[in-house]
Specification:
Largest sheet of chain B: 7 strands, parallel
Helix content of chain A: 25-40%
Largest sheet of chain A: 9 strands, mixed
CATH class of the largest domain in chain B: Alpha Beta
Number of strands of chain B: 22
Structural class of chain A: alpha/beta
Oligomer: heterodimer
CATH class of chain A: Alpha Beta
Distance between the termini of chain B: 70 Å
Strand content of chain A: 25-35%
Number of helices of chain A: 7
CATH superfamily of the largest domain in chain B: HUPs
CATH topology of the largest domain in chain B: Rossmann fold
CATH architecture of the largest domain in chain B: 3-Layer(aba) Sandwich
CATH topology of chain A: Rossmann fold
Chain lengths: 262, 402
């Protein structure tokens, strides 16, 4: 069984800070990491392979050349191979163009049973690319998957996290699953994995390699367009209440009276 | 390169002021010989630098812009989410915002309602601001399933051609609308915190946070219709219901194959502990590592019960197995925006702050005066939470007459 994991390289958000003097984004020393939700997707792919006693896990990413680092990390965790989609023509892609481009790569690889993605990326937070891919490929999906209960080569039974609890869904394969944190605990790369990642050849595919319709990729293929980027006004400084616990509790309750009675 | 999108700096106009370097969210601009140079392998063509440059020295070109006639597209639509036949509160919030947008455009606000035997809810949606309801009823639509819902909504959009479609950024909404947007090839912007109409072009201006709220972006959809957005809970204000409002109900029916689903919903499980939905709650009381032990969540629950609030938690409390993941607030948990957020024994790692810092009022109770949580707090108390929280509960009980 071939399992595809789609991952994104993102800035480690902890390091994205606003410079209080210039009120701009400080980028110095920003590390790039695999999107945290995609780590669960990688782990789940590896677990499926182990559970079935065989299979092949292929990691795919779309991004600038340096996104190879993310794919190398995926290999060090245990993915069998990886492909990077990188082309100047992909720049400026919104979720429509991104999901189209990734689905073209998936078509080229072919013969897959499961596509796993994180439920959303930590930099864009849209949760739109996973469902976009299943739609471009015309295969069923389950989003917010928190558990794969049963799995055969033809179908799966999974739990989808909802606001109130979870749904139990049976779905034929091939299918797309986007996963939440609760599904597993990602492993650390092994030493052997790291060695393998170092030696691994990660091919780079361009728009031409995956037969993209140029009208559907990059900025030109993206229906949405960013017209303005700005930093939000910083939160107004707060007030520290001082005194004995009894007194500060009374004060606070008084301040919040309108909100809680509201 | 000549006919595809690109960005360039006109050296003659660049004064080397470095403004563009500072605003670039992707660190793609550097100064070389006192002129800005864009590293195209990092640039995403977001246009932040074009906006910032005071000398019109940066040109972002999209290839041959086509002018399309959108006169056939009108009305503002709101996808009205229902569960077990009950309209979800997010739908009312979207109708409130949708009403404002429809009035600015001078068009109708339409509620889209899919479900089984649910026509008695139409008047409710009209009272909340809708002029028209498109109603699709079938036993196959009683609970949400990706494929039939996608197919029905896609067909409605193709038939009636709305210019704007709003949908909740809920589990259902995000799964559904992403599929519909791809099917009709529309632009979709997630988690908008601001929606407005550009007075000249009549375009929908969609503002949303990115990079965990560290930057905001305004996004438009100039060349396709409809313009689609999702909005999180509690971001928009609902309208007060007015029972006298009149509206039209349009019933739609589709052939059986439209309702086909390859996946099968076997069961809907509600977890007992989740008495109040975190994302919908007006008040959230959260506990963190400072609680020290799982049983100490009882004092958080006590306060929450008094305030009719939901219980939240930091990642470290969840990772320690003190409370289920469904309570986690933050980057890898839920993003919340209540009227009041009370953080008890939470230090306030950036990942947690991302998930709650847009709350109206934030209270932080922590014994470490240097805890980052105080940087976002409206009211801070530097004290042992075990001393303060029970007293706070007592005072609230008095105020609320409990």
């Amino acid at each position: 069984m071939k399992i595809l994991v789609l991952i994104k390289q993102v800035p480690e958000t902890t390091d994205v800070k606003i410079d209080p003097v210039t009120n701009t984004l400080k980028r110095e020393g920003v590390q790039s990491i695999i999107n945290p939700f995609d780590m669960y997707a990688i782990e789940e792919a590896l677990r499926i392979k182990e559970r079935l006693g065989g299979g092949e896990v292929v990691a795919i990413s779309m991004g600038p050349p340096q996104a190879k680092d993310a794919l190398a990390e995926a290999i060090s965790m245990g993915c069998d191979s990886a492909v990077l989609l990188s082309d100047r023509k992909f720049a400026g892609s919104d979720t429509y163009a991104t999901s189209y481009t990734l689905s073209q790569a998936v078509r080229k690889i072919g013969d897959f049973k499961i596509i796993l993605c994180g439920k959303q990326a930590s930099d864009g937070d849209t949760a739109q690319v996973g469902p976009g891919i299943s739609t471009h490929l015309d295969i069923p999906q389950v989003t917010y998957v928190k558990k794969i209960e049963e799995l055969t080569p033809d179908k799966a039974r999974v739990e989808r996290m909802t606001e109130e609890g979870y749904d139990i869904i049976e779905i034929p394969l091939p299918a797309v699953f986007t996963v939440v944190k609760e599904i597993n605990e990602p492993r650390l790369p092994s030493l052997k994995g790291k060695m393998r990642a170092k030696k691994a050849e990660i091919p780079v595919w361009t728009a031409e390699d995956i037969s993209c319709d140029e009208e559907k990729i990059g900025l030109d293929g993206s229906p949405t367009r960013v017209v303005k980027v700005f930093t939000p006004p910083p939160r107004e400084g707060g007030q520290i209440l001082e005194g004995e616990p009894e007194e500060v509790a009374r004060q606070l309750a008084e301040f919040l009276k309108d909100v809680v009675v509201g | 390169m000549s006919n595809s999108a690109n960005i360039k700096i006109i050296d003659e106009k660049c004064t080397g002021c470095t403004l563009c370097v500072k605003v670039c969210p992707f660190g793609a601009i550097e100064m070389k010989d006192k002129k800005a140079v864009i590293d195209l392998s990092k640039c995403t063509l977001c246009g932040a630098c074009v906006e910032a440059c005071k000398f019109e020295a940066i040109i972002l070109k999209k290839s041959d812009e086509k002018k399309v006639d959108f006169s056939l597209y009108k009305d503002v639509w709101v996808f009205c989410e229902q569960k077990k036949g009950e309209i979800q509160s997010i739908s009312y919030e979207l109708l409130g915002k949708g009403r404002e947008l429809a009035d600015k455009l001078g068009v109708d606000l339409c509620g889209i309602l899919l479900g089984d035997k649910i026509n008695d809810k139409c008047q409710d949606l009209i009272a909340r601001g809708a002029d028209k309801i498109y109603l699709v009823e079938s036993p196959k639509l009683s609970a949400y399933q990706d494929e039939p819902y996608t197919e029905v909504l896609t067909r409605l959009v193709q038939k009636y051609k709305p210019e704007i479609v709003l949908c909740g950024a809920t589990v259902i909404g995000r799964s559904l609308i992403s599929r519909v947007a791809v099917k009709v090839r529309a632009g979709l912007t997630a988690d908008c915190t601001g929606l407005d109409i550009d007075p000249d072009e009549k375009l929908l201006l969609q503002t949303r946070p990115a990079f965990g709220g560290n930057i905001m972006a305004t996004i438009i959809t100039p060349n396709t219709r409809p313009q689609m957005s999702t909005v999180r809970h509690k971001v928009m204000k609902e309208m007060d219901p007015s029972s006298g409002r009149k509206g039209e109900i349009v019933k739609e029916e589709f052939p059986d194959d439209v309702y086909l689903s390859r996946s099968m919903l076997l069961d809907i499980v509600e977890e007992v502990e989740e008495t109040i939905n975190l994302t919908e709650a007006d008040i959230i009381v959260s506990g963190g590592r400072g609680l020290g032990a799982p049983e100490n969540f009882s004092i958080i629950r006590e306060l929450a019960l008094t305030l009719n609030a939901a219980v939240g938690a930091s990642r470290s409390a969840v990772d320690a197995d003190w409370i289920p993941y469904s309570h986690q607030v933050g980057q890898t948990g839920k993003t919340v925006c209540p009227k009041l957020y009370i953080a008890c024994g939470i230090s306030g790692q950036i990942q947690h702050l991302i998930g709650m810092k847009s709350s109206d009022v934030i209270v932080a109770i922590n014994k470490d005066p240097d805890a980052p949580i105080f940087s976002v707090a409206t009211y801070g108390i530097v004290e042992d939470l075990f001393k303060v929280v029970p007293k706070l509960t007592e005072h609230f009980k008095k105020i609320l007459g409990k």
